[in-house]
Write a structure and sequence with these properties.
Elements lengths: L5 H11 L5 E4 L2 H4 L3 H14 L3 E4 L4 E2 L6 H33 L12 E3 L7 E3 L4 H12 L4 H10 L5 H9 L13 H8 L8 E3 L2 E3 L7 E3 L6 E3 L9 H13 L6
Parallel strand pairs: 1-2
Antiparallel strand pairs: 2-3, 4-5, 6-9, 7-8
Helix pairs in contact: 3-4, 5-9
Protein name: TnpX site-specific recombinase domain protein
Pfam families: Recombinase (PF07508), Resolvase (PF00239)
GO molecular function: DNA binding; DNA strand exchange activity
Length: about 250
């Protein structure tokens, strides 16, 4: 539980401006599980703004400062944080185990694939877009630059990956107003090992159970499973693309 939640911020702003004088929650853990932050609000900020705080099931009520529940509040806050850390540890273990067996972890499948119905959500080639992925690799292997590939796809009015996904969901594309293929998309496809049947998971991680910001891991830390699913392109074509990449400077477009 983080104090950056929009609802919490609105409530705290209302408290500071005098719009409310009572904060009521089910228990301390529903307010927050960072014992330092919970203590800062309950022991310092709420009294400063004349806010009464009640956690029902924990019998915490700042109007009864001498109660045994108030005496126990620091210990309850520490336990709530320990529980949060322990739960996070267990979830990471579950995710790691799923990654080792090639379970697909992304919300949306990579362009060219559909999410399978098995317990691992094994990617299955999409008959609509898999041929486009193969064509992108073939055009690049023939010597075309990414910008030239973009021009071909745009001239043929082939929907971009995000446009195609939005159309499948029956919704407008919230990620783009241009609706054109770009170099970044082409390069991302050309560098994605999923197209040779390799599943790479756990590419990012949160900084900690307290800080949910995602950071990208070094490739050596990824969990990779080869021959995990049906490839869209053959290994020979993948190797040809890698050979071309190695012969060009990184700024090549």
């Amino acid at each position: 539980m983080t104090f950056e939640r929009p609802g919490i911020q609105r409530m705290l702003d209302d408290a500071k401006t005098g719009k409310i004088n009572l904060i009521l929650c089910k228990d301390l853990s529903r307010f927050g599980r960072n014992y330092i932050e919970v203590g800062r609000y309950v022991d310092y900020l709420f009294p400063l703004y004349n806010i009464r705080f009640i956690a029902l099931t924990d019998n915490v009520d700042t109007a009864n400062a001498d109660s045994s529940a108030m005496d126990m509040m620091p210990i309850m806050n520490i336990f709530n944080e320990w529980h949060s850390a322990n739960t996070s540890k267990k979830l990471r273990a579950v995710h790691a185990q799923g990654a080792k067996v090639g379970k697909y972890k992304c919300t949306f499948t990579a362009y060219g694939y559909l999410k399978g119905n098995d317990e691992k959500y094994t990617p299955v080639p999409d008959p609509q877009t898999a041929p486009i992925v193969r064509r992108i690799f073939e055009m690049y292997a023939s010597g075309m630059k990414p910008i030239q590939i973009c021009n071909v796809l745009n001239d043929e009015h082939i929907p971009t990956p995000t446009d195609y996904r939005a159309a499948q969901l029956g919704k407008p594309n919230p990620f783009s107003k241009v609706h054109l293929w770009g170099n970044t998309t082409i390069k991302s496809i050309l560098n994605n090992e999923i197209y040779i049947g390799t599943m790479a998971n756990l590419k990012t991680s949160s900084i900690s159970y307290k800080n949910k910001k995602r950071v990208r891991k070094d490739k050596s830390e990824w969990v990779t499973v080869k021959n995990n699913h049906e490839p869209i392109i053959p290994q020979e074509l993948w190797d040809k693309v890698r050979e071309i990449d190695s012969s060009h400077p990184k700024t090549h477009s």
